[in-house]
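Subject: Protein record for review, amino acid sequence with backbone structure tokens
Why sent: The fold of this protein is of interest and is recorded here as tokens.
Notation: Tokens come from a learned vocabulary of local backbone shapes, not from coordinates.
Attached in line: The record itself begins immediately under this heading.
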Amino acid sequence: MKWRGRSEGLTYEDAVAIGENCSAVETVCPQIRISDTAKYLDKEWDTLVIGTLPEYQVVGNHWVEKGMNGLLSLQ
């Protein structure tokens, strides 16, 4: 599994260790991105799925305003 960033060898455990051991690092938030096809009934869409943690809101300064049926609106 590859995490976003410059190092292809960085693991989730590495990110946790960086957050715990580097005093200059305030928040750690790993991500994984997967391109895939979303299908619903007879429709298909090429899409990008991003897996991350709640800390993404702090790191990316994007805050979830509300969610409905799996859809999110960012502030």
Observations:
- The two ends are 30 Å apart (CA to CA).
- The longest strand covers residues 32-40.
- The chain is about 20% helix and 35% strand.
